[in-house]
Amino acid sequence: MTARQNPPARWRADLALAFVAFIWGATFVFVKRALTDISTVYFLAVRFSLASACMLLIFAQPFRRMDQRTIGRGLLGGATAGIFLWLGYILQTFGLKYTTAGKSGFLTGLYIVLVPLIGACLYRRWPQARELLGILVATAGMIVLTFPSLDTHLRLNKGDLLTLACAVTFAFHLLVLGHFSKRERFEAVALGQIACAALLSVSSLSLERPQARWTGDVIIAIVLTAVLATAVAFALQTWGQQYTTATRTALIFALEPVFAFVTAAMIGGEPLTLAAVSGGVLILTGIVAVELKPAPNG
Hints:
By secondary structure, the chain is mainly α. It has helices at about 10-35, 40-60, 60-65, 70-95, 100-110, 110-125, 130-145, 160-180, 185-205, 215-240, 245-250, 255-265, 275-290. It has one domain (about 10-65, about 90-290). The mean pLDDT is about 85.
């Protein structure tokens, strides 16, 4: 296990994770535009491959100071998390073919609730009562946020089931990443998960015919998502999860749809509805309820 020297104040880790949620939410509108001109799996393959190269440049200096054994352990742990990360993206993508965007957003957001439940089963340790309360309030915010865009059919179809499986894999990704980020060098873990996702995306190109029109929207989306939303964001997430719990990470990531709605309103010209504002307030309330009394490391 790699020792962590002089851990930062927890609020710095939480702030880094909030910034990650901001990046993911803010780039959603760019990805949505780009996917009209490029097939999804092809987009993911290019995104993760370019992000892997960026991470190698970002972490070049730390890697020179690590021994091969340390690098190997970190890469292996990261690759384990990367499998769940890739599965989540693939399941969500194909689920969207058979369900609505509103239901997809809502069902994917269930990973916020699944993280503490799965974590309790795996580690026999329940989150603090304050964390559970924050999750319940934030989940209510997710429901309010996405409810207007849900369709009226409550039956689960094939797309809904694929998206539910996506939520489960994203929950496992947070838990696995949290486990290895606390035990190995975060630089190697971060690179391992993205490189693994890149390899799996390239190998899965046969699932969907690769096609692209290299428009400005596509190029901008690839650069933004590869550099900011993948290389920088996942490096920050891996670093931040060293100093906080997977449950708190999931709760902070509930901010992503809030940032997505705000960005869509500011850049995409979409209306900022009362439901979006109310849902965002509930999510922030849930997070603040937890942040007022930081949980111990673990």
